[in-house]
Amino acid sequence: MIDIQQVTKEFSGKIAVENLSLTVDDGKIFGFLGPNGAGKSTTIKLITGILPIEQGKITINGFDITEHPLEAKKRIGYVPDRSDVFLRLKGIEYLNFIADVYDVPTDIRKKRIEYYAKSFGIYESLNDHILTYSHGMRQKIVISGVLLHEPEVWILDEPLTGLDPKSSYTLKEMMREHANKGNIVFFSTHVLEVVEQLCDEVAIINNGHIEFLGNMSEMKQQFQDEDNLEKVFLELTQNE
């Protein structure tokens, strides 16, 4: 479970997230939507411990991200919105480095590296430097690294950006399978069709506040005059 209680984050006098509370239960794919600058990435960086929490509390499967950061982070797999990392390493060096960080045994990591690299079509490029990879390939190597230690909670910031249709389909299938095992997939996206297709629950954030929180059926009941998520999203964020 991801439990966010009354979290506020301020930058140079400007409030990015204000008194935000949110709970994501196990077994869910949770979509996190909002226009640029709404507080999506700030919230995700607070959940993952990248940004310190000034007010409020966040727990990941019972571990407070501030009081027990290592225990909480062991349970997280985080794909950032930018994949330009460790560019001077070869793909295989990067994956082995990530596996070392999370203490993935040698025999297990070898099987997982092969599985994910082949699933995303980058197996033949693992001995090339990440610097030579296309944007899409860099996204794939980052996703592969994130999944190596089989984290219980996936936190994905725009994970489908740059992926080709086959890899995008593969990742969406993995997301569904992960949630079906009783785990959590928390992801932000601008692709509203993916939200309608995949998500069990959705939150729409605007100006640091949650404007809607619930499942697709509840959204349709609340906005009976709107026939799709795009119209609801535009209505909720019309002042942006």
TrEMBL record:
ABC transporter domain residues: 2-232
Pfam families reported in the protein's UniProt record: ABC_tran
Record-linked CDD domains: ABC_DR_subfamily_A
Keyword hit for Mitochondrion: no
PROSITE patterns documented for this protein: ABC_TRANSPORTER_1, ABC_TRANSPORTER_2
GO terms assigned for molecular function: ATP binding
Entry coiled-coil feature ranges: none
Key word Cytoplasm present: no
Keywords, comma-separated and alphabetical: ATP-binding, Nucleotide-binding, Transport
Protein origin, superkingdom: Bacteria
Alphabetical list of PANTHER family matching this protein: ABC TRANSPORTER ATP-BINDING PROTEIN ALBC-RELATED
Protein name, as recorded: ABC transporter ATP-binding protein
Lineage, uppermost ranks: Bacteria, Bacillati, Bacillota, Bacilli, Bacillales
